[in-house]
Amino acid sequence: MTEDKKVTILIVEDEEVQRKPLADQLRDEGFQVLTAQNGQEGLELALREHPDLILLDILMPILDGLAMMKKLREANAWGKKVPVILLTNLNPDEEEIMKAITRDEPAYFLVKSDITLQGVVEKIRERLAL
């Protein structure tokens, strides 16, 4: 990545123990990182800053991740197409999650306990074709 146009990743995660190491890893990899602690804050930041990709926790206070993604997709043309990677410890077989992923493309699902920080970075690079 060049210094003049860093890829921007928005992390929307309510747990600092998850958010901080992920943000640190992404910065170390050369990404510009924005963070939000709940879905409402994340939605406002996303619509204002237009990150290249959003890492989005599902279970959060104020506005959960699925509700945030729905509002994002309804907001404008950019919101309809920005790649979203859902991060959660919920079972991927949950019907609501699967509907959201297929309805709200481009979306991808990762189970936090099944992936390393480097694995998340690899998925980001894959989704953005970097």
Summarize the topology.
Layout: E1 8-12, H1 16-28, E2 32-36, H2 39-49, E3 53-57, H3 65-75, H4 77-81, E4 84-88, H5 95-103, E5 107-111, H6 117-128
Parallel strand pairs: 1-2, 1-3, 3-4, 4-5
Which range does the strand content fall in? Answer: 15-25%
In total, the number of domains comes to 1
Helix content: 40-55%
User: Roughly how many Å is the radius of gyration?
Assistant: 13 Å
Strand order in space, largest sheet:
2-1-3-4-5
Q: Please summarize the sheet with the most strands.
A: 5 strands, parallel
N- to C-terminal separation?
9 Å
What's the number of extended β-strand segments?
A: 5
Could you state the order of secondary-structure elements as H and E?
Answer: EHEHEHHEHEH
CATH class: Alpha Beta
As residue ranges, the low-confidence spans are none
- In the CATH hierarchy, the third-tier topology is known as Rossmann fold
Describe, in plain words, how this protein is organized in 3D:
Helix 5 links the parallel strand 4 and strand 5. The protein has one domain (8-128): Rossmann fold. The longest helix is centred in the N-terminal third of the chain and has 13 residues, at 16-28. The chain contains six helices and five strands. By secondary structure, the chain is α/β, with parallel strands linked by helices. A five-stranded parallel β-sheet has the order 2-1-3-4-5, sandwiched between helices. The radius of gyration is 13 Å and the shape is globular.
